[in-house]
Design a protein that fits this description.
Elements lengths: L1 E7 L2 E7 L8 E5 L6 H8 L7 E3 L1 E2 L2 E2 L5 H6 L2 E4 L11 H8 L8 H10 L1 H5 L10 H13 L5 E5 L7 H16 L3 E5 L3 H7 L2 E6 L2 E7 H6 L1 H7 L3
Parallel strand pairs: 3-9, 3-10, 7-8, 8-9
Antiparallel strand pairs: 1-2, 1-4, 5-6, 10-11
């Protein structure tokens, strides 16, 4: 992402940010609400128009492409607030995740069920009746059905109990070990920096700091602002 600018009406949400995610990394974006973290993911996904700058993926410029084309290139998204289809079953939600695929998706459904046994138990249950943690698992599973090479996750721990947060971060690490590159937006900066190779700090649409996860976690300014100490 190079010199990315995004505006909503007259308000500049992103003021020319540049970030890089290398193959095989976990990179996290941290910052306060309204800093521009979700806007960055939405711009990469093609969900919001960009004013200036370029987004390049795997050597190809993808800025200006449709969301469908971007998904077909191998970029998946777990949106903030989970956004499962409440009146469809768990299995139907997973099938929707593979809507661009023409091959056999059954092995991938089984893989999701291996990662999240609870979803297998509830495969015929309506997604709207699941707990918050189960819905988050379903949102991750649905994104995996496209076999993404890059998985973007927007606030995966938001509103979840500590035990479930621990489980979700364990799954993120497992996906990383399977070879998926991850771009993680997360309010829980401490957890995010523990697992991230590198991170960027966003403040009101600009990058104020960057470094390895360990470097950022050790910074007194970052600790004071985002880690409560």
């Amino acid at each position: 992402v190079k010199d990315l600018k995004v505006s909503y009406g007259g308000i500049e949400a992103l003021k020319g940010i540049s970030i890089q995610v290398e193959k095989g990394e976990i990179v996290t974006l941290i910052g306060a609400n309204g800093a521009g973290k979700s806007t960055t993911l939405r711009a990469i996904s093609g969900l919001v128009p960009i004013k200036e700058g370029t987004i390049t993926y795997d050597g190809q410029i993808i800025s200006g492409q449709t969301p469908q084309k971007i998904v077909s290139e191998g970029i998946g998204m777990v949106p903030e607030g989970r956004r499962v289809f409440p009146n469809l079953t768990v299995l139907e939600n997973l099938r929707i995740g593979a809507y661009l695929r023409k091959d056999d998706i059954q092995p991938d459904i089984e893989h999701v069920y291996q990662l999240f046994p609870r979803l297998k138990e509830r495969s015929w249950q309506l997604a709207g009746t699941l707990s918050g943690g189960e819905q988050q698992m379903l949102a991750v599973g649905r994104a995996l059905m496209m076999r993404p090479k890059l998985l973007m996750m927007d606030e995966p721990s938001l509103g979840l109990a500590p035990k479930v947060i621990h489980d979700i971060f364990g799954i993120i690490q497992l996906l990383h070990e399977e070879g998926i590159t991850i771009l993680l937006v997360e309010q829980n900066a401490e957890k995010a920096l523990q697992i991230a190779d590198r991170g960027y700090v966003l403040e009101t649409g600009s990058i104020s700091a960057s470094g390895t996860g360990r470097e950022l976690a050790a910074s007194p300014e970052i600790r004071k602002a985002y880690l409560g100490g």
